[in-house]
Amino acid sequence: MIPQVVGQLPPESTQQAVGYPSLFLLVALGALVPVVPTGALVSSAAVVALHQSSPFSLLIVFVVASAAAFLGDICLYWLGQRGVRSRNGSRWLRVIRDRAAPERLAQAQQKLDEHGAVVLVLSRLVPAGRIPVMLACLLGRMPLPRFARGDVPACLAWAATYQLIGVLGGSLFPEPWQGVVAAVGLTVLISAGPTMWRRMRARFSH
């Protein structure tokens, strides 16, 4: 489901044979290494699925994306747990710590104390919210099964949201590549917008 931005798309059977496994691997990798733009990948895949003849294409994208996100989250949480239990920590725990700003971690810990695992659902929908909440769960010694129960609806909501962005972008343009560009642009704007706004407020407040 990863489209070519320029030119004609490959045959539909080729897209499905190559695209779905690629989407799964990239989203799972993006959950483990939070630098891969997984939201943009899901939105792009949704655009391509929207222009396919199969009525189940969008459903398959949703299932693949949510399952891959869940698998990546569980693996990262398990690796983080090993670091929490270890006296010397671990590389994966340091990666999670480095990507969680202290103020965001403090907010996540407070919300986790107040609302419990429900915060996991919102963490995937808020830009840059997943890692601070995951770290708060790790530091709070939340068991893996409890984390998994909260992460299931989080991944489903996340996949549905970014798929909807792709559908909206794809429905505005006749060519799939145009919809991909629009969906990726909208995804980047949603992801980077809050961070840019906070930086602008901090700069002008000083």
From TrEMBL:
It is found in: Cell membrane. Its main location: membrane. Pfam families: VTT_dom. Keywords: Cell membrane, Membrane, Transmembrane, Transmembrane helix. Residues 49-166 form the VTT domain. Belongs to the DedA family. This is Membrane protein.
